[in-house]
Amino acid sequence: MSTYGSLFRVTTYGESHCASVGAIIDGCPPGLQLTEQDIQVQLTRRRPGQSNLTTPRNEKDQVHIQSGIEHGVTLGTPIGLLVKNEDQRPHDYSETDLYPRPSHADYTYLQKYGIKASSGGGRSSARETIGRVAAGAIAERYLKQVYGVEIVAFVSSVGKIHLPFTTGPSSDDQDNDDIGDAVSPEFLKLISTITREEVDKQPTRCPHPETAERMTQATKDAQDSIGGTVTCVIRNVPGGLGEPVFDKFEAKLGHAMLSIPATKAFEIGSGFRGTEVPGSKHNDPFIARDGGKLGTGTNWSGGVQGGITNSEDIYFRIGFKSPATISQAQQTAQYDGTPGTLAARGRHDPCVVPRAVPIVEAMAAIVVMDQLLIQNARKTAASLLPPVTTLPPTMILPPGAK
Ligand SMILES: Cc1cc2nc3c(=O)[nH]c(=O)nc-3n(C[C@H](O)[C@H](O)[C@H](O)COP(=O)(O)O)c2cc1C
């Protein structure tokens, strides 16, 4: 469906070549100061044409607030956001009238709906993500103002070129059970300090100049495309978010991330590499934190245990496939089964990860916002009850603990 969230509900609308795309956001708290410019910052970061890895489609992606905000303040009513599609060129796609694009969504949309948008990717196009990014900017503004939440995503690999010291693929070294290889101290330091300004210094959005340069060189082939990964960290999320058992925090995060077009993989914390090391090395021992609460000395859990946030940094990685549309001729079949070759025309992203960065940040903000409103509703409801004094000590925190 086109709606995500329970209490912070985001509905996106629009196809790649229709009049406009956008979102309705229901459940934003009233009284939040919000202007179009607050939303525009992230939309501008998502725009195409900012590096040679992205499509040259020229869109300003200027957001227009339609409802829910007056005098720069949210009313608590549904917020309508609209972005015009200005650089539509339906004729770019005429070959695909005959051919479903291999590994794109043309054929599956027809199988499902029996009808599809006449050109471009329709709803499966990345234009749809404009509504997500706009909604995420609103969630993020509230989260930052009230809780100091910081969300930063960056490109951690393009093809086989990886940012050093990020969570990497499994090592072939059978005897190496050192978790430090997967989640190194340098990586943990990076995610605890990285800013969007640092990320945006490189057009590839990989915050390591030498690796960024190698990524740029590796994507010079204008006839082909390549995949990559985006790593994201969410800092200062309060503990207690997530709704076990089916709506565990990482399940909501995984759902949100895997709904982004072109995603193929999601891992949180130590991820797949963490499966290869024993518990004695993988466990996160508890330590006392300022204010009397417990924290963890390491953070292989990625900030979530039992499906509930534990106040540590939440970090995760998403795998994006190579975009399906390539100008190189491919042997395939037409809709009627006739074999043939397709060399797609039109404007396409050779690699989606630099543009996926603000989309990942937006979906992260939407998930945190929704889970926060749910937990706050529960806490408010519980706080209205008289205190219970009859429980055995094993059911509650001991005196002095927080
Ligand atoms: C930012 C972004 C830009 C994209 N640009 C393209 C593109 O130019 N060409 C293309 O074939 N797919 C592109 N995609 C991916 C398609 O939208 C997506 O792969 C396609 O709809 C098939 O869906 P699936 O990959 O989710 O299965 C892009 C995805 C994102 C997130």
UniProtKB/TrEMBL annotation:
The keyword Lyase applies. It holds the Pfam family Chorismate_synt. It is an enzyme of class 4 (lyase). Reduced FMN (FMNH(2)). Its cofactor is FMNH2. One of its GO terms (molecular function) is FMN binding. The keyword Amino-acid biosynthesis applies. InterPro entries: Chorismate_synth, Chorismate_synth_AroC_sf, Chorismate_synthase_CS. Its EC number is 4.2.3.5. Residues 198-213 have a biased composition (Basic and acidic residues). PROSITE patterns: CHORISMATE_SYNTHASE_1, CHORISMATE_SYNTHASE_2, CHORISMATE_SYNTHASE_3. GO terms for cellular component: cytosol. One of its GO terms (biological process) is aromatic amino acid family biosynthetic process. Pathway: Metabolic intermediate biosynthesis; chorismate biosynthesis; chorismate from D-erythrose 4-phosphate and phosphoenolpyruvate: step 7/7. It comes from the Eukaryota. Keywords: Amino-acid biosynthesis, Aromatic amino acid biosynthesis, Lyase. It catalyses: 5-O-(1-carboxyvinyl)-3-phosphoshikimate = chorismate + phosphate. Residues 198-222 are annotated as: Disordered. Belongs to the chorismate synthase family. Homotetramer. This is Chorismate synthase. It comes from Leucocoprinus leucothites.
